[in-house]
Write a structure and sequence with these properties.
Blueprint (H helix, E strand, L loop, with lengths): L5 E5 L2 E5 L9 E7 L7 E2 L3 E7 L5 E4 L2 E4 L3 E6 L6 E4 L8 E8 L6 H4 L5 H9 L4 E2 L2 H14 L4 H16 L6 E2 L16 H13 L6 H8 L3 H12 L3 H19 L4 H7 L5 H12 L3 H9 L6
Amino acid sequence: MADNNKIMYQRQIISEITPLSDKDCFYIADRYKSAFTYPIHRHREYELNFCERAAGVRRIVGDSSEIISDFDLVLITSPDLEHTWEQHACTSQNIREITIQFSPELFFQSFIDKNQFASIRTMFETAKKGLVFPLEAIMKVYFLLDSLGSEKDFYAVVKFLSILYELSKFTGKAHTLSSSSFAKIETPHSDSRRVQKVENYINIHYREKISLKQVAAIAGMTSVSFSRFFKLRTGKTFSDYMIDIRLGHAARMLVDSTNSITEICYDCGFNNLSNFNRIFKKKKRCSPKEFRENYHKKKVIV
């Protein structure tokens, strides 16, 4: 997200070429600013982004849009997940932003698979949808982040690893941002084989009409038992889960295609346009048309 990065446009979403060198473990930009101006973008590098005194800024990660408070710390580990921080209602003239970008190859497979890195490995997997950390986690690593830019060579790497490890302890308390369907993540997240079978079925057949009775049969349960079981395992009702999957695919199509909103509505399993618009606005806080325009609008880079 550095101001001098080289960029190229693709569907009006920037594919950022970061300043990270093959010889460096990570790149850090620690800066003070009065406004967020960098457009929505994506890049192959993992990114940890910290904002301070930025209340009122709108954070967009995938199909998630949230207004942040004075402190914000997000980890993104997907090369396909678009993100940006927009000025929106922020009036602060003394924003601090620390952006750390590092290559996925930094933790080569035989290294990240060691037992000592289990929590970091889990955090990286979860952060494919974008992961925002609670204030408790931010305070835990605040002084490490604050001084990371002044460290040199080996000690900088040690401090960076310490930050990742401390944050990994809060993965369970952090919350994901983008929907899995928008982030193009279809790997079942549940440890229940029954739920995994249902999730796999939904990922394939979400365009079709799927009844509770159908998925209950796939899980080998009655509709009533499955409904309770699914809510317990996923934290969502089956109906809400279906809506979220379909909305994620719809949001992705709004960004990646030129299909009409009506076409997207029916292609993603919704059978009523007005109902689709109503649900989309309720969940995303904007209409499908506004969502598409927000992603595709041009912004000034200064």
